[in-house]
Amino acid sequence: MKANILKKFLFVLALLFLSILSNGQYVLFFATWFFTALLLLAVRKLPRWKGFLFAFFIIAIGYYIGTDVAPFLPVFVSIIITIIFSLLASLPYLIDSYLSKHRSSFMSTFIFPTSTVLIEYVYHQFDPFGTWWHFAYTQQSQSVLLQSISLFGMGYITFLITWFSSVFNWIYEQKNEWKNVKKGILIYSLTLGLTFMYGGLRIHFQKPNSKTIRVASISALDSLKVLIDIQGLNNKETENSVKTETRINTSKLNQYLFNKSITEAKAGAKIVFWAEGNGTILKEDENKLYEQASQIASTQKIYLGLGLAVIDPKNDKFLENKFVLFDQKGKKVIDYWKGISVPGAENPISNNKTTGIQKIKTDYGTISGAICFDLDFPDYLKQAKGADILLAPSNDYKEIDPIHTNMAKFRAIEQGFNLIRQTSFGLSMGTDYTGKVLSKMDHFTDNNKVLITQLPTKGIRTVYSKIGDSFIIFCLLLFIWSNIILRKRKKTNSKNIIL
Q1: Across-strand partners of 272?
Q2: Are 405 and 421 in contact (CB under 8 A)?
Q3: Which of 385, 443, 381, 445 is nearest to 408 (CA)?
Q4: Are 359 and 368 in contact (CB under 8 A)?
Q5: Positions in the chain short of pLDDT 50
Q6: What are the backbone angles phi and psi of residue 401, rounded to the nearest 5°?
């Protein structure tokens, strides 16, 4: 009796440990596979609603600990997010429990993964934080596996992980039916094998072989960052003195960034751009800054991109978060405003103008740009389809370093562009369209804060960029079809495998 209780206690403890490691800041890619399989095993041994509640609490504890990376959010908001996420993440276990009498059929293994994919997809369509903590991100270190998202998107990786869990449990329950078990193992192994075969071929034979160009991306020194006294600028008694001080500080900051840009241009860089909001300017001085940028771009014969925080103290939403690119003739060719502001910290102060992701054709391929948080939304990044190069000025903080940058390379694989994410207070990285890391720089250890990347000039049109989220529709149809087949199966109560 005591030994049995101890065994159950240790099993639950192991599940909690794996839950923490299965997503978030402490993630280990293999923990996700083991955790999901073992949790499904545990839930199936419990009565339906007890199993659902058990799954909810195990997932919630792991999620809250593993994803506690947003210090700007009040605790009660984090708890609400945890509850919503965990309830939705537990629903597939509840759905699976309704098929307990039909599990002899291999078709039953599709219910859990398809329901997980569908619920996850819907959740992230409405989540204001985009695709944060998507199942697929847990596999960011697995380059060969990640190539599959160029075909079917991130939902396919979720499907593979949760289908593994379902097949694992099906084999466990059908251990006396070896003939069926062999067929089930063959089907899953063939699917996984083809996935890895495609990934290996893509990495080794479809990797970029185009010419490369030298790109320099720049972050400002921490000591030069400017704090804007909005209240002082809006106070008639202090307006002039605060404005004078602000201009002195912004001039020093922006001139440093211009000087670094010129240095990198002389060193051979053909594209130079700044991290998100690293250049800072008052709204009334914005055009003068553009004139200076235009002159430098034309004189140095470079594409010069400014990551700018334009401050308009007269507006309640005083921040204009921009990426402005000048071509080699000094012409402004991209005037992009950040598409999606971070809820809680950034959104209340951001004045967003809908510009959409812009693309320009150059001698170095088609160049596009998006800012930081924008890249957490695959649907939004579909606008960059056809780009060869995406420049992504960004700004993070220590708690999400390097999680956030690792997420960005998923967009490169999905859409087939080569990417540079220049990140203040985080990891800067350049990757090709297979997600291969070409360059990286840690803001917290690099004193120069300049990332040099030899970036391919040619991207690729991926299957995903053409068919979008068709795999989600496939999962919906497979879920419906499986349920129909299993309902018919109930009448015959056969133990044969149904394909």
Answers
A1: 216, 304
A2: yes
A3: 381
A4: yes
A5: 494-495, 497-499
A6: -100, 120
